[in-house]
Amino acid sequence: MVKKSKNFENLNSFKSNNTENIILKEFVKNINSHISYIQDNFPDFWNNYYREHFSEEITIFNLNSKQSKCTIEILKVLFEEFEITNEKLDDCFVNKFKYNNFLCFYEKNFYKFNKEKINLKNTGDLLNYCIRAERTYKKYLDYLVPDGFTYFEKIKREVKSIVLDQNYLNLGKSNINVNDLLLRKKVFLAKKGVESLNIYLFYNEFDSFCKKYIHAKGLKSIHENIKTINQGATFESKIQMTQNFFYKSFLTYLALEQLLIVASRFGRELFGTPKSHLAEEGSSVVRYQSYFVDIRLANDIRNISILQNMQYQDFFSFKDSHNKELFSSFMSGDSHSLLIPLIILRYFFVNGEAFVVNLPNHRNFIVSLDEEVILFKMNSVILNWCSNRFKKCMQFYK
User: Fold this and answer.
1) Closest to 237 (Cα-Cα) out of 223, 245, 227
2) Among 70, 126, 131, 359, which is 20 to 30 Å from 229 by CA?
3) Are 118 and 46 in contact (CB under 8 A)?
């Protein structure tokens, strides 16, 4: 427990003479500095919780009000007992909170509460969690998001009220024709008096890319919990069913595909053609092979045993000649595009051939840690390209 601060001394100790008025003003100033710290550093907490229940500013005139007293009490708990300025404690408190749903962090979900029905201790626990979760959330996003995301997130706040309007959503309830739906949305937005149509028309598609990009960049490993019941007893084990690089490649492919689709459509709206400097080859992933040529990394990938085993139909079954020929061109050295192994790993993941297997008398089907690093580097090269292209799109997203 930290030594109690003089900032929170009992208000009854302050008297009305001039000297003590100076002390009182200093007390109020210090309280407001704590309020400013919360407002400046935790805008989501400030808007979703703090402003609804506590004072935004303490003055000598409102010092004795019920809300001000409640505010001072909760600030005392947060700053003295929980030490919310100490970032080293963030993981400890966030992980211990019983309603921790932090991994779903792309959208900020806040638990609403009735301050009148829960005691000061429980309120402090909840607010301490929310503040630290927001700070941790920001650290994750700073690492995971593509370049240009900060600008996109500002747009996000502006457009959400309209793109989540039920009448707007109903336009696509029974309509999957992209061009027709685009026209209907334009009419809807025009009636709303919206001037910058594009930020609404392509919001959901860019938003989908960001989610897929964050998922792909953040993934390091995946396990499944297998639960069995035998004679009334339950047994649960954490087992790796799918090799990490298969799933990582699948997610990277999804992010790249989504970005090319929206960049192509966005480019057509801006420049009258789906093949613009936002998407030079249109929306088809396979056409971008020349954008990801890396001879050294391609050679490293070819030497990975599981990639060599993929050449044998008995081990990995190709269902079409296109992907078989594409993969053969890479393994033979005719192509050095990193996009080809990404496409093939995604192909086998979708076809259910990404399970962990190790056949005796054959070269190992399980990649080593060093080999996994090579395949993750391949994914990083492609995701970095996506990040730069997203930033380029954001320059026109106005």
Assistant:
1) 227
2) 359
3) no
| pTM of the complete model beyond 0.90 | no
Q: What is the DSSP letter of 115?
A: G
DSSP states of 240-309 as a string?
Answer: --B-HHHHHHHHHHHHHHHHHHHHHHHHHHHHSSSSBTTBTTTT-GGGGGGGGB-HHHHHHHHTSHHHHH
Q: Tens digits of per-residue pLDDT, 31-55? A: 999 999 999 999 888 988 888 889 9
Helix/strand/coil for 58 = coil
In single-letter form, the type of residue at position 169 comes to L
Q: How many Cβ atoms from other residues are within 10 Å of residue 325's Cβ? A: 10
Dihedrals φ, ψ of 276, to 5°? -125, -175
The list of the chain residues with pLDDT below 70 reads 1-20, 97-119, 222-226, 237-241, 356-364
3-state DSSP call for residue 193? coil
The tokens of 261 are what?
Answer: 């689709």
Q: Give the three-state DSSP class for 224.
A: strand
Interatomic CA distance for residues 398 and 388, integer angstroms = 18
142, burial (CB in 10 Å: exposed 0-12, middle 13-18, buried 19+)? exposed
Q: Which two tokens stand for residue 56?
A: 């935004």
Taking a C-beta distance cutoff of 8 angstroms, is the pair 311, 331 a contact?
yes
Task: Say what angle helices 149-163 and 203-218 make with each other, to 10 degrees.
Answer: 130
What is the C-alpha to C-alpha distance for residues 242 and 251, in angstroms, rounded to an integer?
A: 13
Which DSSP string do the residues of 119-150 spell out, in sequence order? Answer: -HHHHHHHHHHHHHHHHHHHHHHHHHSPTTHH
3-state SS, residue 355 = strand
Of 273, 293, 292, whose CA–CA distance to 283 is shortest? 273
Give the whole-angstrom CA distance, residue 361 versus residue 125.
57
Looking up tokens 């053969």 gives 328
Name the H helices within the chain.
18-41, 43-45, 51-53, 66-76, 90-96, 120-144, 149-163, 166-170, 178-191, 197-201, 203-218, 244-271, 295-302, 305-309, 321-331, 339-350, 369-394
**Contacts with 238 (C-beta within 8 Å, 6 or more apart), sequence order:** 223, 224, 225, 226
Instruction: Return the pLDDT at 230.
Output: 72
Separation CA 156–CA 170 (nearest Å): 20
